[in-house]
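Section 5: illustrative case.
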């Protein structure tokens, strides 16, 4: 009996041992399967439970003017995040953050949702605010470094540069058009969790660093942009116009040198601006050009040989009937040569010349100068204007289009066409971007000027330029004259269509002047435009003086000598030792005694002789360039500007006899 029990016990023990061995073997097989065959899958699941991936936005590439001045740049900024599931009292945290972030505590508390493991509290904090948050020593708050977009010149060229949105995307201007290049490549970071799924505070772990974006160098000249904006802003405020703008181009290359628009906005606070303020009117808002478009008709008529500058047209004493409409002139005229038709901006004479050109040939030159199609500047929102094909023209269309009605154009289209006349009849592709830059500021891709087509012959362009020079010298454009320089151009006064009556309103509409200078070697072509000014009614009175004011300073900045002057170059005055920042040190003697206590600021030199100007600049470590003879009429930098070592100072001298006053 005992022996049977022992045998049974041994059997049960063996069975149990076998069961345990099988179970252990099964566990080993399972572990091996999981470790070998399921390793990658479960590693990913474990990583997902252990950490949350957070994107790291790259440093956005800078936007520079043609000389390297920064118009937009990115700086490191701290973005505040919270770990609500770790917070014992999120309301208290929100209350403490409210005065620092300048937001209601209730808004912050809503973001600190206790059901969320990770939330952004506020992105891209200024250093002062970030430090104040750190001083709270709240363990459930942390920072991730991101890129903060800054526009150091505020409103300067805001419509061209555009702005970056809160999500790091460009939303207008160059920021939007070149977003792919500026943005760079996004990186990744991990916010880790413990075994219970709770978030662990501390710096996130960078898995993949972000790659900075490329820089964009523009064709804009920041100095010319400032000059244009200053004059446009003053005119916009003085006339209480709905809008105002000036677009300046180098006619030789098609490069946009300045694009000043009012109203404007500060891209550092773009959210506070209206759509009206952010709109780039120079490319988005087509308008009827009025009398400035007579130049396009004249170019076609001269090129086709249907008129000559000396051909005479009878002005019909100020009225002409076309189809069922009577079109009037701004004043009655008798006999006028074709040159005088443009010089006096005669509607009747222009209509007669346009009728001789004919609609098919006129349409060929309108499209040849680039109207009716986008100019391809590359900025978002560009309009093609409005141009109907000849089969859609009415019996009145040829006449009205000869004086700039029944067609709409943009400011950039208009200045591009005039630049073609200045450039010997060759239409250039308008250009706003000069080069792409790498992270070290080296050019990795450049954009060369490109000719689109030869619209009119060089001979016709010279002939038309002579006529347009007379427009400024003794015609309606006399207020655009710049002393010392020959200017060619045309005024425009265009009424707007009243949508309720479908007739042209008598209220001031678009007042403009388009021209170029100097005539013998054009360096700038420019359109100036005022939209519905409240206290001006003629382009000759409102827009032409703005052209003169901007053009005068622009030509001096570009070192274009006045007529009858000869360039003189002076040697650099070297300092004895490097100057501390913001200070001026004594210089080697040139011919005058240097005062060691001279303040480091540009003296006022206008009206002084060359010798007096040299004496005033002798104590400074500057490079001096002088153009002309006589007394100083223009200086750069302006008086009072700090003079750092190596500053380039330019003086323009003139002593020319006064020109006779132009006839109105």
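Designed sequence:
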């Amino acid at each position: 009996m005992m022996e049977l029990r022992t045998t049974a016990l041994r059997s049960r023990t063996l069975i149990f041992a076998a069961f345990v061995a099988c179970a252990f073997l099964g566990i080993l097989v399972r572990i091996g399967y999981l470790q070998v065959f399921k390793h990658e899958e479960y590693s990913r699941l474990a990583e997902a439970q252990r950490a949350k991936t957070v994107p790291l936005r790259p440093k956005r590439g800078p936007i520079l003017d043609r000389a390297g001045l920064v118009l937009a740049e990115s700086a490191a900024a701290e973005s505040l995040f919270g770990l609500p599931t770790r917070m014992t009292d999120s309301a208290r945290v929100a209350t403490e953050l409210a005065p620092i972030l300048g937001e209601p505590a209730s808004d912050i508390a809503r973001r600190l949702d206790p059901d969320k493991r990770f939330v952004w509290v506020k992105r891209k904090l200024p250093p002062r605010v970030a430090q104040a948050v750190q001083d709270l020593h709240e363990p459930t708050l942390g920072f991730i470094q991101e890129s903060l977009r800054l526009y150091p010149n505020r409103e300067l060229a805001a419509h061209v540069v555009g702005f970056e949105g809160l999500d790091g995307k460009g939303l207008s201007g160059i920021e939007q058009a070149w977003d792919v290049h500026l943005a760079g490549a996004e990186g990744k970071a991990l916010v880790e969790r413990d075994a219970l799924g709770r978030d662990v505070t501390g710096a996130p772990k960078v898995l993949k660093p972000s790659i900075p974006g490329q820089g964009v160098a523009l064709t804009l000249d920041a100095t010319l942009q400032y000059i244009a904006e200053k004059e446009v802003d003053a005119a916009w405020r003085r006339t209480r116009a709905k809008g105002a703008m000036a677009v300046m181009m180098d006619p030789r290359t098609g490069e946009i040198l300045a694009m000043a628009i009012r109203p404007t906005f500060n891209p550092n606070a773009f959210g506070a601006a209206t759509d009206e303020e952010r709109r780039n009117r120079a490319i988005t808002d087509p308008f009827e050009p009025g009398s400035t478009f007579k130049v396009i008709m004249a170019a076609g008529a001269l090129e086709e040989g249907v008129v000559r500058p000396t051909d005479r047209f009878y002005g019909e004493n100020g009225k002409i009937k076309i189809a069922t409409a009577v079109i009037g002139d701004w004043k009655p005229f008798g006999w006028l040569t074709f040159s005088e038709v443009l010089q006096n901006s005669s509607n009747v004479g222009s209509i007669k010349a346009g009728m001789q050109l004919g609609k098919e040939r006129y349409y060929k030159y309108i499209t040849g100068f680039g109207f009716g199609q986008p100019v391809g500047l590359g900025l978002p929102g560009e309009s093609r204007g409005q141009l109907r094909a000849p089969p859609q023209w009415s019996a009145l269309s040829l006449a009205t289009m000869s004086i700039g009605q029944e067609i709409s154009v943009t400011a950039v289209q208009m200045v591009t066409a005039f630049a073609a006349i200045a450039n010997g009849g060759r239409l250039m592709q308008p250009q706003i971007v000069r080069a792409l830059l790498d992270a070290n500021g080296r050019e990795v891709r450049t954009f060369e000027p490109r000719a689109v087509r030869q619209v009119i012959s060089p001979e016709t362009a010279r002939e038309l330029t002579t006529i347009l020079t007379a427009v400024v010298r003794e015609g309606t454009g006399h207020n655009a004259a710049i002393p010392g320089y020959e200017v060619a151009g045309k005024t425009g006064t265009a009424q707007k269509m009243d949508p309720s009556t479908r007739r042209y309103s008598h209220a001031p509409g678009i007042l403009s002047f388009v021209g170029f200078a100097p005539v013998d070697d054009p360096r700038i072509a420019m359109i100036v435009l005022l939209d519905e000014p409240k206290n001006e009614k003629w382009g000759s009175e409102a827009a032409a003086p703005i052209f003169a004011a901007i053009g005068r300073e622009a030509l001096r900045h570009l070192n274009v000598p006045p007529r009858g002057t000869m360039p003189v170059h002076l040697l650099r005055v070297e300092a004895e030792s490097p100057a501390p920042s913001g200070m001026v040190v004594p210089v080697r003697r040139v011919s005058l005694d240097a005062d060691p206590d001279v303040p480091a600021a540009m003296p006022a030199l206008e009206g002084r002789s060359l010798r007096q100007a040299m004496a005033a600049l002798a104590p400074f470590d500057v490079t001096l360039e002088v153009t002309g003879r006589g007394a100083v009429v223009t200086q750069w930098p302006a008086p009072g500007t700090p003079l750092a070592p190596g500053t380039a100072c330019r003086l323009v001298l003139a002593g020319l006899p006064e020109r006779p006053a132009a006839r109105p």
